[in-house]
Each structure stands twice: as C-alpha cells, then as structure tokens.
C-alpha cells in the first residue's frame, strides 16, 4: 500500500512541486511550495482522524494534500484538473491501489473554488485544509508599497488555526488579522468563494463552518 512517506520522498514529485511554485512566483502568487502542501496534508489528516475516520483514509487525504497543487506546473488556470491527471499518472506508476487513486484524483480535481465540489470526505477535508492556509509568510513580495489586495490580505493574517470542537459539530477557522495591512472587508472581497466552499465542505463532513477574525464571529 502506497504511503504518505513514500510520496514525500519521491524526487520527481519534489521537483514538480518546486517548479510549480516557481511558476506561481513568476506570476506574483503566494507561496505554494512544501510549507503549504505539507500543512494542507497534515491538516486534512487531522480533520478526518478527529472525526473518527480510519488511519488509512486519513493517510489517503494526506497524499492528496501533498499532491494537490502540482497542476500549477502546467498552468494556474484549471490547475486542479491538470493536477488530477498528473497525480493519476504518478500514482499509477507507483503502484497505487486503483480505488485509493480514484479518491485522491477526485479530491485534487475538486479542490479549487472555481469549480470544486466536496464530493467525498477526502475532498472535503482537503478543501478545508487548503483554504484555511492563509498567513503572512506566504507573501513573496517584500515591498509593502507595491502590495496588491491579495498581498495585503495574506500579509495581514498573523495567525490562522483550524480546529474541530470537542463535540465534533463545528469546524472553526480563527484568524488574527493586523488591519493596518488588510481590512476584514478586503478578506471577504477575495475569499468569499473560498469561505462558501469551506461551508459546503464542512457540511459534507457533518460539521458547521464558522469563521472568527480577531475573536469576532463573522460566519
């Protein structure tokens, strides 16, 4: 059975992640390299384990999280679909179980807010993990004077945490935002679709999605 550890040790996959992130850097996008994909992988695994899913399902979610952004190697547009096709080829060559490969490919192909749908638990967990990774350290631009709205909003987030409550009924995204760089309104201006997708993903897992910014509940 293909493991998450094997996936993270693959030099080919590492190269695809690095090159995909380089392409996004050239386009002015935030960091999508190892810090991001490993955080998504670990958070997706945490979500499913916390909700009582078995270890193998959580591991499949981690594999999907690690691979989810490789499609940016092809193009930012439709990167979820191209990434899903790339993942199928990679996983097939590595001898992945077809049923697990189908789940991973489906999750990757449905993680983007433009056309993604949380069609299964792995996809839902990965969506929540991906869209909750908003943080200052993802901003590449070091010149505050030239920040665009995406830079401002991401840079304004000093801390972000995603937690499931003890009753396993609510998943909470809590952000600490420095409003000197980005306002709450700007956050919603660029992330509203993401928050809607998070709400849908939470519902797929039997949870309610809530958003707190500076200790104020907004969703």
Overview features:
219 residues; alpha+beta; Hypothetical protein af1432; four-stranded mixed beta sheet; 9 helices; 11% strand
3D architecture notes:
With 219 residues, the chain is α+β, with helices and mostly antiparallel strands. It has 9 helices and 4 strands, in the order ααααααααββαββ. It has one domain: Hypothetical protein af1432 (Orthogonal Bundle). Strands 1-2-3-4 form a 4-stranded mixed β-sheet. α4 crosses α6. The longest helix has 21 residues. The model has no long low-confidence stretch (mean pLDDT 97).
What would you call the shape? globular
Distance between the termini: 40 Å
The name CATH uses for the topology is Hypothetical protein af1432
The largest sheet has its strands arranged as 1-2-3-4
Task: Return the CATH architecture.
Answer: Orthogonal Bundle
Stretches with pLDDT under 50, minimum 5 residues: none
Query: Hey, roughly how much beta strand do the residues contain?
Result: 5-15%
Helical percentage: 40-55%
Structure summarized in a few sentences:
It contains nine helices and four strands. The chain is an alpha+beta fold and 219 residues long. It has one domain: Orthogonal Bundle (Hypothetical protein af1432).
Note the topology.
Elements: H1 4-9, H2 11-27, H3 34-50, H4 55-67, H5 79-93, H6 98-109, H7 121-131, H8 149-156, E1 157-164, E2 170-177, H9 184-204, E3 208-213, E4 216-217
Parallel strand pairs: 2-3
Antiparallel strand pairs: 1-2, 3-4
């Amino acid at each position: 059975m293909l493991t998450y550890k094997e996936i993270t040790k693959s030099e080919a996959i590492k190269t695809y992640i690095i090159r995909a992130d380089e392409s996004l850097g050239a386009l002015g996008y935030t960091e999508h390299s190892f810090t991001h994909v490993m955080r998504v992988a670990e958070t997706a695994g945490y979500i499913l384990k916390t909700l009582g899913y078995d270890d193998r399902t959580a591991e499949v979610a981690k594999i999907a999280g690690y691979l989810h952004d490789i499609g940016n190697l092809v193009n930012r547009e439709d990167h979820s679909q191209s990434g899903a096709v790339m993942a199928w080829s990679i996983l097939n060559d590595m001898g992945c179980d077809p049923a697990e490969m189908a789940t991973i490919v489906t999750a990757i192909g449905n993680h983007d807010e433009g056309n993604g749908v949380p069609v299964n638990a792995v996809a839902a967990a990965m969506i929540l993990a991906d869209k909750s990774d908003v943080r200052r350290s993802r901003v590449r631009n070091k010149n505050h004077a030239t920040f665009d709205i995406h830079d401002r909003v991401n840079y304004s987030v000093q801390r972000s945490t995603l937690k499931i409550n003890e009753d396993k009924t609510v998943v909470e995204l809590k952000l600490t935002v420095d409003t000197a760089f980005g306002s709450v309104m700007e956050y919603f201006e660029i992330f509203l679709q993401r928050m809607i997708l998070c709400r849908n993903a939470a519902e797929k897992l039997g949870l309610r999605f809530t958003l707190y910014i500076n200790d104020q509940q907004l969703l």
